[in-house]
Amino acid sequence: xxxxxxxxxxxxxxxxxNVRPSAEAVRGWRAHPVYHPELWMWILHVPTGSPTALAIxxxxxxxxxxSLEWIQVHPQHRRCGLGTHMITELLSWGAxxxxxxxxxxxxxxxxxxxxxxxxxxxxxxxxxxxxxPDAP
Length: 136
Fold this sequence. Notes:
- By secondary structure, this protein is an alpha+beta fold.
- It has a domain of 85 residues: Gcn5-related N-acetyltransferase (GNAT) (Aminopeptidase, 3-Layer(aba) Sandwich).
- 31% of the residues lie in helices and 21% in strands.
- It is built from four helices and four strands.
- Strands 1-2-3-4 form a four-stranded mixed sheet.
- The radius of gyration is 14 Å and the shape is globular.
């Protein structure tokens, strides 16, 4: 799946009004030391084979951190449990490999409400805002 950088780029763009990482940026994410191929997953619509959801997480073995970076569900398939399913799968992997799991997103947003509904809690949040839309 990571070889299909253009498909990842296009899918992310279909989920956001103003976010479109380039295919080159997506390929670059695989060069990061925290890249782990098991943590990139698609959910496909069976009849058409088209993507309905995408999850990209990273694993930093130096601090044993699982970081959920991109969790998107296509707008036509939201509120069906796909995002929760991907989070569950990633956290299951993390339970065996990581000491902590983190997420990122905008404060007071649908993303924050979603992550909290999935069990993420606490108020010690770090928000990193980037001007570069290609940055993960």
